[in-house]
Amino acid sequence: MKIFVVNAGSSSLKYQLIDMETETVLAKGLCERIGTSGAITHKAADGRVYTADTPMPTHTEAFEAVVYAMTESPAKVIDSFDEISAIGHRIVQGGAVFSGSCLVTPKVIEQIEELGAMAPLHNPAHVLAIRACIKTFGEKIPQAVVFDTSFHQTMEPKVYMYALPYEYYEKYGIRKYGAHGTSHRFVSHRVADLEGKDIKDLKIIVCHIGNGASITAVKDGVCFDTSMGFTPLDGFMMGTRSGTIDPSALTYIAEKESMNAAAVNEMCNHRSGMLGISGVSNDNRDVCKAADEGNERAKLAVDMQRYQILKFVGSYVAAMNGVDAIAFTAGIGENDADLRSNVCANLTYLGVTIDEEKNHIRGEEVKISGSDSKVSVYVIPTNEELAIARDTLALIS
Ligand code: AMP
Fold first, then answer.
1. Coil, helix or strand at residue 357
2. Catalytic residue check, 148
3. Among the options 148, 225, 234, 391, which is catalytic?
4. What CA–CA distance (Å, rounded) separates 178 from 324?
5. Where are the alpha helices (H) located in the chain, listed in sequence order?
6. How far is ligand 1, taken at its centre, from the CA of residue 284, in Å?
């Protein structure tokens, strides 16, 4: 059985074809510049690659290019899309409407569209992709949607509410929703598997640290709290996002610089974080390199991010009254041994020790805590596509 996983943006479309018997990737690819020029890069698991510049005025033409790449190109992996049992879409915002994955129906499409106000860069693009799939493949291939937010729907009101006038929660749904839920769910369940325990018996902190980054506290097998909020801007500083700051600082800057709400939003989302502080780059490798070479602002950016991560970890230890396991994942979490060492060096009060040899193993699941550590610490490569494919398979089974 094969599942096709789609992660659509407004001008891009990432995909993977996964064989569910072996849970291996048969092919993956990326369509870029949808709406303008159009290009596809398609890679088969055996190393064959197909690339082409091909007009993609809409997502429909992008899917047509994917069909060609998968079934006819020199890097083809299947004879026909009839071999595909279902399509699973990653959806960024499910609001309070979706507490789990579900099959696509006209009503579901409408609800995802309505939630677009809370994820204007993402949800409308997901809807375009779902509709393009219906157009390209008809109704014969079932489609499922898997939400970044649904894992966080178990948070209690005391956790997800903001202390703003209650009417804005009622009128506009202003509250914490979180993000990266598919990754947090996948990684926390892997932690439980590796610990050989029921996830319900563990207190776990998952640090998903990539260009976008969030930390989640998992208790009784479900999300208890998470660092991202109403939008993925909240939490600790990221590549270009500020994370949590005093809103008065923003109104002050807005007044001084004559910025409207959209300009403030743009500043916080695209010109802040590691990029804003270092002035070097949003990319962690570039910032760390500059810091090592003596760039003071780059060093400050690195120090700030690590300190903020540490504070979230500490606050979730307090919120859960303890922690059994901490996991690092995503681009930085999986690859930056120095960041992991640095954060864990400040967790000795919990009895955390790190085996530095294991901490430097790359590209695989590894328990990096020392044999005497009171808390297990893991590096777990995240696999959101596999999680989406598993949910999709479960829904059609
Ligand atoms: P993601 O958004 O999960 O793809 O993560 C992207 C981030 O991971 C970027 O900031 C990269 O600089 C960072 N990253 C990737 N590889 C490494 C590495 N070997 N060392 C440090 N950071 C890395």
1. helix
2. yes
3. 148
4. 22
5. 59-71, 106-114, 123-137, 157-160, 166-172, 181-195, 247-257, 261-270, 273-278, 284-292, 296-320, 330-335, 337-345, 356-359, 384-396
6. 6
Around Cβ 139, how many Cβ atoms within 10 Å?
Answer: 8
Mutational pocket test of ligand 1: of 187, 286, 305, 336, the residue with most ligand atoms within 8 Å of the beta carbon? 336
Quick one: CA torsion of 171, 172, 173, 177, rounded to 10 degrees? -170
Element (H, E) at 115: none
| The pLDDT of residue 119 is above 90 | no
pLDDT bin (cut points 50, 70, 90) of residue 117 is: confident
Q: How far is CA 105 from CA 60, 87, 168, 300, 358, in A?
A: 19, 13, 30, 49, 47
Using the atom order of ligand 1, give the atom closest to the CA of residue 212. Answer: 2
The closest residue, in CA terms, to atom 23 on ligand 1 is 332
Q: Which atom of ligand 1 is closest in space to residue 339's alpha carbon?
A: 21
Compute, in angstroms, the gap from residue 367 CA to the centroid of ligand 1. 20
Please state, in angstroms and rounded to a whole number, the distance separating the CA atoms of residues 229 and 57: 34
Residue 120: predicted pLDDT: 84
The CB-side HSE value for 336 (13 A sphere, CA atoms) comes to 27
CA dist., res. 203 & res. 317, Å (int): 9
The pairing of strands 376-379 and 325-329 is parallel
Looking from the CA of residue 208, the nearest atom of ligand 1 is 3
Q: Name 145's bridge partners.
A: 89, 102
Mean pLDDT of the chain: 96
Whether 11 lines ligand 1, by a CB cut-off of 6 Å, is no
